[in-house]
Amino acid sequence: MYLRTMSAANYRSLRSIRMDLGSVNLFVGANGAGKSNLYRALQLVKAAAEGRLTHLVAEEGGIYSAFWSGGTRKQEKARIRLSAEIVDENTGIVYGYSVETGYKQAEPSAGFLHEAQIKTEELTVDTGRRPVVTMRRKGAHITARGESGRMEDYPEQALTSETALFLLGDAGRYPEISTLRHIIGQWRFYHGFRSDAGSPLRLPCLPITAPMLDEDGANIAAVFATIAHTRQDTIDLDRAVYDAFSGAALSIPVPEEYASFGLVLPEFPKRVFQPRELSDGQIRFLALAAALLSYRRPPFIALNEPEASLHPDMLPALAAMIANASADCQVWVVTHSQALADAISERCGVRAKTVIRRDGATWIEGMTLTGRIDDEE
């Protein structure tokens, strides 16, 4: 499964943008150009699948903060619009999902005035002939294609804070909706990692098999243990650590009461440095290694400024891990570092997309209105 296109309108600095995507999607640009808003727009799509879209908007300051602050056309509805096309490469089936969210009517008794309201949703499935609508939502009313193949009313009225993708994906009666919800739910967004003394990266974790890294990195030790003792193949992980830390090696004991790990540095070959002793750059690089080299990679990994706190000497090893991951998952990288962008471009054979501001809105240099980059091969 891969994300073929994404689009966003009226979200923060994204006035209206649509992009075709590839296996590696690399974005560079100046501060304030809106690179992170592209990243966050996709996070909102995942949040819709998890039933947390309005929650995530609230964490950003509410619908009034999230909405496009520039000028709008007369009679245009004040709505944030998000959509994505996801393709199953094995079957050729294309899933198209869109969601619109907007303001609550400002009535004295309305309550939750800053909460985003889900206005519309639609899911289409294209098996090769034409897209067929399998779910449509307007306000609280939802219709979906049932077992008979016909559109039928969903028996419950949705709250304005609930997404139909989440509600029906858990109902057990709508396989296409459940499939898409499951696919999007596996996406992983890594927006930096905490590196303070209380960071989950520095703490032992429960000894439970972990096929992929949690978004906060809390199961990092279990991810390493799963690679070492379940897959029993640490070649890629060992190479990444060796290259990043000039000959260092990971120590990954068999989990007992807790899963743990340490780092053996070449200048101190008899000493295992525990996570609490590692520098910010060291612990963050190891978290990126766990994300990119896990036992089972998610179908989509997004990294927002992964170079933060890393020594420049670590960037080639990071680029190599991204190239490794792109062999079987789609990768999205937002970076300020031209050195990292160049290294990824060289290893993955892709050109960085330069994010700019055009008429106050975020845009991609050289992109046409259809979402294609003019100089793409």
From TrEMBL:
<dbReference type="GO" id="GO:0016887">
    <property type="term" value="F:ATP hydrolysis activity"/>
</dbReference>
<dbReference type="GO" id="GO:0005524">
    <property type="term" value="F:ATP binding"/>
</dbReference>
<protein>
    <submittedName>
        <fullName>AAA family ATPase</fullName>
    </submittedName>
</protein>
<dbReference type="InterPro" id="IPR014555">
    <property type="entry name" value="RecF-like"/>
</dbReference>
<dbReference type="GO" id="GO:0006302">
    <property type="term" value="P:double-strand break repair"/>
</dbReference>
<feature type="domain" description="ATPase AAA-type core">
    <location>
        <begin position="24"/>
        <end position="342"/>
    </location>
</feature>
<dbReference type="InterPro" id="IPR003959">
    <property type="entry name" value="ATPase_AAA_core"/>
</dbReference>
<dbReference type="Pfam" id="PF13304">
    <property type="entry name" value="AAA_21"/>
</dbReference>
<dbReference type="GO" id="GO:0000731">
    <property type="term" value="P:DNA synthesis involved in DNA repair"/>
</dbReference>
<dbReference type="InterPro" id="IPR027417">
    <property type="entry name" value="P-loop_NTPase"/>
</dbReference>
